[in-house]
Fold each of these.
Amino acid sequence: MDNTKLKEEILKLKEELDVTIVAHYYQKDEVFELADFSGDSLQLAQMAMEDKNPFLIFCGVGFMGESVKILSPEKRVLMPKIACCAMAKMIDGLHYDKNVKILEEAGIKKEDILPITYINSSAEVKARVGEMGGMVCTSSNAKKIITKGLNSGKKILFVPDQCLGQNIANQMGLKSCVVDDGTDPNEADIICYNGFCSVHQLFEVEDVEFYRNKYPGIKVIAHPECKPEVCDACDFVGSTSQIINYIKELDPEQKVAVGTEFNLVNRLRKRNTYVLSSTKPECPTMNETTLQDLHDTLLSIKEDRIITEIQVDTEVRKWAKVALERMFEI
Ligand code: SF4
């Protein structure tokens, strides 16, 4: 079936079934256009909690579908492709335990560590964090959550994104380090796990310099998953929704170069907007979801032979939910 026919079939199936389709901002345009709701991972999890349909089709990456299932267990959450975010895949429960042990061996007691996990992590890691008294954060609220965590007087173990942890530490004038990077974790306020986003890592300081030289007066903005030296060279650093709002406020003639995922940047503003890298980085796992996958998922509901449904173990869900709810309380 070609894309036009597939779209027609998808819309027909959507009419017939009690189903809501949500899509993350980084999805391909043809999938994104068919969603009832779009947003970042937190916005989508919140929308899903309020949605009344029994079936939710989540076009995104695995941890996002899991977050919805953790918060709304009664919902049947289906993902057309259970693609795993490269960053979330860099840490599992065993890696997490190993990092806590390394800190203990460096003389930091477990009870003096407050873990915070970026929402881009598995349910298993969120559960470990919840069980140790910690919480989840997103790139929009990381500063607020870390501030709250530091009020406990404990050291922050920030997983899995070292860049987000370091960028927030820099913004707050705090000391940070990465576990096992050769520095003494006792000296740091925020100790980061050594994970990173394979897409946002592609932006370089040279890219910022290139655009500044080519278009004097250009604004350069980046997502905090970019390297600290890139963020330091930018005019503004913000989460996906903060980037969208920042660009909306700009004069239409103002040129802007944006260091985040290509599909999103490409959709933001048609004129005077540049992706901060000639490689135009798309998130490969986000791009795995196709119209065909979306169609097949809808058909599996109609024919009562569900595929790719998200399940979360009850014990894991209990503690992961605690970690997520602590974030919502703040
Ligand atoms: Fe994960 Fe990076 Fe893709 Fe976001 S852009 S889903 S952090 S790999």
Note: The chain has a mean pLDDT of 95.
Amino acid sequence: MKEVIKIEGGHPLEGTVRISGSKNATVALIPAAILANGPVTIVGVPNISDVSALQQILEVQKVKVIHKAEDHIIIDPSHMENVDLDHVAVTKLRASYYFMGALLGKYKSVRIRMAGGCYLGPRPIDLHLKGFEALGAHVEYDQGCYHIWAEELVGTKIYLDFASVGATINIILAAVRAKGRTTIENAAKEPEIIDVITLLNKMGARIRGAGTNVITIDGVDELWGCFHEIIPDRIEAGTFIIMAAAAGKEMTVENIIPQHLEALLSKLDEMGVDMDVKLDRVTIHGGSKLKGVDVKTQTYPGLATDLQAPLTVLLTQAEGRSRVTETIYPERFKHCYELDKMGATTEVTTPKATIFGPTKLYGVDVTATDLRCGASLVVAGLIAKGVTTIDQIYHIDRGYDNLDGKLQALGAKIWREQIED
Ligand code: EPU
């Protein structure tokens, strides 16, 4: 037996949805917390399986995790041990690689299995490793495991060939307790990185330049516990805004930071979506006639690659030809093949896809090949004629907190079912 999500399309969304804490911030904040010498309280933790996997890793390391409330955890690394991380949970998500930087920073040594996560084409970690080596670490790779160690970590200047989110965070985690100053040039500027730096500075780190492409870290001897509230998830917010534009009557998406969504909101405006943007919410008035546009994913503040798949669904409903260019993960177009099964007309020639719209979508059996593909199939299911069945939904559960529950509250007909394998 396996669990699938089923959606009966054609029920308009109405009401208000509250956005959870950012997945991609959380999965870095949890490994960052182990650098403290006392309890770190984090509020706004989304209920997703990536967090459960990280918690399993913490338990292996004898880090105490207390759930104070549904979205409120205390991570207490006071009695932690630097055990080898060959637990299967490491392979469940990409972000387990943040334990490389955090454990290297704390203990000057880490043994860890290769991280997992969504397959979006090749996802090398050469920039992370080069960063560790520049700080004085040695890297060995043997049979799927990394051993990274240093006699001493010494601050230096590191230029990233690409403004990688993961490499920027991992190098920061390793450098916070290094000797002297580390400067990361061409650093990534994503809001999740600012959130991690905010936490680390509350813990006693001395990091400047968050949100710019030059980050300076002055190493400190000790980091302590603190309280931190996670920023709202801009990708979950963007997904719901797109759902509202595709299937909404009148819908409000609240607990957002509109500035984090500027590229998406201006693209939707260009398409003809009717929206009112307020301080921490956006109301979308559905039913507008949409026109096709060209979009290009870029590093922040450009359009997030994680919103490309859901946005592609909206483009299938827009008049005319739209072109999507993917500059972050050139092969991230598996959703197009699934959408074509539902009636979309897309042409993929990586790193681009052309979408011809508007096309009617029909409920069929489709597969969530990765997290954001899964989200895009939910968007498509909401507007499709008939029932859409989505397989491999563990991808969706990795990154969306109660997606089906939130949609049910907005009037969608979406449910889970156990079916024969
Ligand atoms: N890259 C390298 N070498 C490296 C690191 C990255 O060549 O050492 C390349 C990647 O192959 C990719 C590009 O640089 O082509 C961008 O990768 P980046 O390191 O910025 O991405 P990431 O840290 O692996 C995070 C998010 C992704 C999101 C990207 C881009 C987490 C856990 N993951 O991945 O989120 O797409 O940044 O914003 O934060 C998702 O949430 O669905 C997701 C995949």
Note: The first helix runs from residue 23 to 33.
